[in-house]
What we know:
alpha/beta; six-stranded parallel sheet; four-stranded mixed sheet; 21% strand
Amino acid sequence: MKVSSSKEKILKKIREALSNPVPLPFPKSEGKHSVFQPQNEELEIMFAEEFSKLLGNFAFCVNETDAKNQLLKLIAGKKWKQVFCVENDLLPIVKGLPSINASSLANCDAAITSCHYLVARTGAIVMSSAQKSGRTTSAYAPVHICIAYVDQLVFDTRDALKGLKQKYGNNLPSFITFAAGPSRTADIEKTLVVGVHGPKEVYVFLIDKPIVSF
């Protein structure tokens, strides 16, 4: 079958292009390296900065006693009457604080939970349905208070997912959430509104080192 001259020209151009490929115009845009900047400062500082940008309230605590004292001041200052907390691991910190209860999430002023990780690069709190507080506590309460330790800080989201995989293997929790500050939306005329479908305020109390007793 005779090939037309125009078609032959096109095929010739294709062969030449394949034999002499054009280099990428932006070679550094392709590769295996992350597009994000590597860690260049301490994780607690990075998390505090990113979390604060997302309208979160950050408090650094030297130990559990310091965390308890700061919680006491917060509860008194806000005049909260019902603070929900059901996690046994947090009892040494919340025990004796006024207004603490484990009976009614529906009528609480605030809720206290733990977390799996804090992601420094994004300022996110990683929680799951495997926690005793369940999947609803952090989202349902008008104010969410998360208590975490420095050794729960990770740099990136994939580090948190890798840690969860190592802990739970093939039995990952049915629900994993990355909460970054209070809920917010800009759906209406691009105006930012905070606290529409979740907590209006989010606090993270980051504890440096645990102590044996109070």
